[in-house]
């Protein structure tokens, strides 16, 4: 993945993006229309990368399902 930005959170009129593991704050006015928390942007940050966003959501859901399958609901023992 080449310098794609993930919208981590929106704080007022500013968005906190994660780019290469670093937080970058930009005005929300610089985000593409429809941008919201939890989506990936194209490398030029001019559009939402719908394909990547959906792919990551599917992978995350699959990981959660695998983890939940082994969870007996009991307390954690260290």
Helix content: 25-40%
What is the ordering of alpha helices and beta strands? EEEH
- Counting DSSP E segments of at least 2 residues, the number of strands comes to 3
Q: Strands of the biggest beta sheet: in what spatial order?
A: 1-2-3
Notes on the structure:
By secondary structure, the protein is α+β, with helices and mostly antiparallel strands. The chain has one domain. It is built from 1 helix and 3 strands. The chain has one helix spanning 50-69, and strands at 5-11, 14-19, 22-27. Strands 1-2-3 form a 3-stranded antiparallel β-sheet, with no helix packed on it. A hairpin with a 2-residue loop joins strand 2 (14-19) and strand 3.
């Amino acid at each position: 993945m080449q310098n794609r930005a993930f919208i981590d959170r929106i704080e007022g009129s500013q968005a906190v993006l994660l780019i290469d593991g670093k937080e970058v704050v930009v005005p929300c006015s610089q985000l593409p229309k429809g941008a919201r928390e939890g989506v990936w942007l194209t490398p030029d940050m001019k559009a939402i990368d719908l394909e990547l966003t959906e792919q990551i959501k599917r992978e995350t859901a699959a990981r959660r399902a695998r983890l939940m399958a082994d969870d007996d609901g009991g307390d954690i023992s260290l």
